[in-house]
């Protein structure tokens, strides 16, 4: 589908444009100072924008590093690999199996810390093997407001966050990505499949596979922003607010119900609020001290 992701890009004032240009200049200067970088690259909006700018600023001194694992949909990996190949950016693929990390599959509230530390440690090893001086990742300033325990691992390992340091938010990154002709400018938000499970529910390869297949089925039906939250025998579907109306179609509902039954879900429910980032975090205490982890 050629449906655009909502953006305010057509309503930018001259002041807004000047502020964004100032931030992109700041980003480029920061990358120049780093001299060489290995970008932790998932293929999402932020990391694609970062790896593209890094490639333009640093040339061969910028590499993209992507991890393949059971928590990372294969469709996303293929899109990520295709982009850097066409962009002429060197791509290093590593294997990372989060389920082998002690404590990860138990799905504690700080699960992302274990994942991020494992992933970034491997990216650091790739950087060292290739004489790259710094590892960078794609967090932006909007990420600072949500509960993200993975940021603790970023700080502990000394990984840089150039988009955050430049003051760039998600909407600005989409606007700049569109201006640069990046295919990801309107791409829906991306998160690993482990984020589909309530904290405390055991994560297994079979469950990850089921969620991946369920989401792919919805994508094939034409939905764009999709999450299938796994609540044991219940699948809770989140789609973007503007796509919720598609479910007022009995044939559509029957097809989804039957497919999800085949995948093992006894019940299938639509979240009436629709998709929102970090919906699984709504049931935990996100006190200020915790949210800064």
What does this structure look like?
This protein has 293 residues and is an alpha/beta fold. It has two domains: 15-179, 3-Layer(aba) Sandwich (Rossmann fold), CATH 3.40.50.620; 193-276, Histidine-containing Protein, Chain: A, CATH 3.30.1340. Helices cover 42% and strands 12% of the residues. The protein has ten helices and seven strands. It has helices at residues 14-34, 45-58, 74-87, 111-129, 150-157, 162-165, 170-179, 205-220, 250-262, 288-291; strands spanning 37-40, 62-68, 90-95, 134-136, 226-231, 234-239, 267-270. The strands form two sheets. The chain has a four-stranded parallel β-sheet with strand order 3-2-1-4, sandwiched between helices. Helix 2 packs parallel to helix 3. The longest helix has 21 residues, at 14-34. It is globular and about 55 Å long. The relative contact order is 0.14. Residues 1-10 and 286-293 have low confidence and may be disordered.
């Amino acid at each position: 589908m050629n449906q655009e992701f909502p953006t305010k890009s057509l309503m930018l004032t001259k002041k807004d444009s000047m502020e964004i240009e100032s931030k992109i200049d700041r980003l480029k200067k920061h990358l120049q100072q780093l001299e060489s970088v290995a970008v932790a690259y998932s293929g999402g909006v932020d990391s694609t924008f970062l790896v593209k700018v890094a490639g333009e600023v640093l040339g061969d001194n910028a590499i993209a590093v992507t991890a393949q694992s059971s928590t990372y949909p294969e469709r996303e990996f293929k899109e990520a690999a295709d982009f850097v190949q066409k962009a002429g950016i060197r791509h290093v693929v590593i294997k990372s199996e989060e389920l082998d990390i002690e404590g990860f599959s138990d799905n504690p509230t700080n699960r992302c810390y274990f994942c991020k530390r494992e992933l970034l440690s491997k990216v650091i090893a790739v950087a060292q093997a290739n004489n790259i001086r710094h590892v960078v990742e794609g967090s932006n300033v909007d990420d600072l407001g949500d509960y993200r325990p993975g940021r603790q691992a970023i700080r502990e390992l000394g990984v840089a966050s150039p988009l955050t340091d430049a003051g760039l938010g998600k909407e600005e990154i989409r606007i700049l990505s569109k201006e640069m002709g990046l295919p990801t400018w309107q791409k829906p938000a991306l998160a690993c499949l482990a984020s589909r499970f309530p904290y405390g529910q055991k994560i297994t390869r079979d469950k990850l596979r089921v969620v991946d297949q369920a989401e792919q089925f919805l994508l094939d039906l034409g939905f764009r922003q999709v999450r299938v939250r796994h609540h044991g025998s219940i699948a809770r579907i989140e789609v973007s607010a503007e796509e919720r109306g598609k479910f007022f179609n009995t044939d559509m509902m029957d097809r989804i119900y039957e497919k999800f039954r085949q995948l093992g879900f006894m019940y299938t429910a639509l979240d009436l609020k629709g998709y929102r980032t970090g919906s699984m975090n709504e049931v935990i205490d996100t006190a200020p001290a915790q949210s800064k982890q």
